[in-house]
Amino acid sequence: MIGNYVKIAFRSLMRNRLVSFINIFGLGLSMSVGMMVLVIVLDQLGYDRFHPFPDRTFRVISGYHRNNGQQWALASTPLPLYDVLKADTSDIEDAVSLYPQLNGVVHVGEKELSLNGAYTEPGFFKVFGFTLSSGNPETALRQPNGIVLSPMAAVRLFGSADPMGKVIRLDKRGEFLVTGVLARTRGKSHIDFDAYASISGVPLLVQNKVLPDRSNDWGDCQAAYTYVLMKKGMGSRTLKGQIDAFATEVNKRDKEGKLSFNFQPIEKITPADGNIYNDIGRGTTWAKLWVEIDVALLLLIAACFNYTNLTLARALTRAKEVGLRKISGAKRYQIFVQYVVEACVLALFALGFAWALFSLIIRYAPFNDGYEMVPSSFKYSPVFVLSAFGFALFAGVMAGTAPAWILSAFKPLRVLKNLSTAKIFGSIGLQKTMIIFQYSLSLVIIIFLFSFYRQFSFMSAADRGFKRDNVLVVPLGGVDEKLAATAVAATGGVESVSGLSVAFTFHYSGMKGAAWVDNTQKGSLSMNYFFADCSFIPSMKLGLLAGRNFTTQADAVTEQSVIINDKAVHNLGFKEAGMALGKKLWVNDSTSLEIIGVVKDFIYENAGKPIDAMAFRNKKGAYNYLYIDVGNADKKSVTDRLARTWKTLASKQVFSSSWLGDDLERIDSQRATISLLGYLAFMSISIATLGLLGLVIYSVETKRKEVSIRKVIGAKPRQLVGLLSKRFIKLLWIAGAIGVPIGYTLGLLFQQNFVVRAGNGLLSALACFGLLLGIGLLTIISQTYKASMENPAKNLGVE
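Request: output the structure for the sequence above.
Response:
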């Protein structure tokens, strides 16, 4: 029977190719977004799946309920909880604590980088699925100064050199010996630190007052992250009773509230629960994931509305088919199943179109920038393929249920015109409501997109306060900065060469830390640090408000001087730039630098972000990028000459470069996000227009006899077009009255997130409505004019 239904469905699709194409196009567009969301969902649900004992590994989470009614759930726990759990050998096979206090500035030779790490136990490798590409997991975390680096941290610190056995120094925490390098994992994990050091070194740091003593502090629930590996056959329920009993003893000493603990399976950590605070990892939350799922479903529902409209528009031509089948003995459920199968067959065709679009999105990644809309790690898998087919069948059932229910209810002699009387919200028809909803949504998306585009175009053209044109940025990649600068400066077309430690990016990614003056930390502030040579400030046309630039080689030998920006001047409490000159800026407990200059504030991150306090420091060997000013020379020829020069410096290294102006324009323009919004806007307009087309076709079909009679008695085509079109045009104006205020308001609210703003966009919002109105009018009139020009004798003759 199903086979016959599929044959009938295929023949029906071939017989009505235009309508089938419209349905496949609309459903395919919406399903392509659904497939992108499907990738995101599978990616987020794939966290922590590679661990060896997922069914027996739990994270302990803390709960605290204050006597005043406030309560929190935290992913972290007090540090001494680990010792309590480790002592339970009857239920627990092993336990691991992550103590995230291994952070600060790490020194490797002359290189200084920020490090985010944690102290942990040797059982780390047993409980979790991490392995080592170098080193022995049994001994890597046993010696007090041993440290294991992530693959990315190893490359950042040592480049292509083997890090094993090398020594790194972390501010205040001493020297560490690299005893291992993590291998790349087979999947994602919420545990994602740069480095892991042996927790056996913590007592010495506590003794030296470097770290606070939290070994018996049950009041600090943010100190550590605790995990347990239960023995086989032992769930967390028995342990829960024991740990609750222990929490009761702790609570006897706490007069302000009550502490409690719970257990979270490791596979349930990501996506995260938005109600659990102090979480780690880069995975999303269920709330964000559901928003993305809801967007996909919203677009899918809109496309399904169109299928319903177009199917009902064709229903007059299929009413006889339904009547004849019922007279010949067909049951209602059989007709219902037939139309649902027809919708599913169409949805599978739409899946093919969606898959073609999705393949292009995967290949060219037009929606990926700093944030990966579609994870770059995506690979086709049986799970994804089966999920995609399941999604298509779900779309088919959802699209076909409503028209199948209506069409299967036909009485053999009933005409279709009574089917348009379904009402919601008073006198507004269901189909009219669909059109208003779709066009309002499309208009809101278009206005917001245009506001988004205007804002980022305005930001990309904003003056950043330094030279950005004709400046080539070249990563040194371990090449000696002094030798490279000398060789590059001698290359034809190069006007100046300067060194910088961190490139200008969307978010500052260099070294951060506290800074204060007068050797007192009471007025300390957060500071971003760039290391720059003495050529950088004049070469990049940065303006000095007071003082001088780094002028002598002595500035770079022992690092005695620092240049701060105007924002730092005011944050440090000075009223004028000149008042900061000569003062000592302490960058840590043992290093103070003389403020020799103040530069004007310049935008070194994205243009919409407030300028933070920053400082230029001058230190030999701390530069990772060359900023090369080529003036008005031909860019391609200069780049080719520099590539040849680079071969003499590093014959085995591939020369890479980028133009600063292009980098900044890419940072501020947000092309990927605009592309995504543009795709959604195109999709919503297409779906809304197809829905309107279906409703117009349906209306013309039901009024064909009336139009013919009016034409016989003398009605002009212009009058007939007006008669058929005016109620649809009214729907467009209603959609505009709803969509313009909402879209304009969202655009204004969006601009509040930025320091520099593009300004009022009311005319742009009205222009967007004019565009959508024009598309709608073209859709309406194309069908109503066609109906007004038909031969009335043909239609009346049929009657």
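The longest helix spans residues 717-751.
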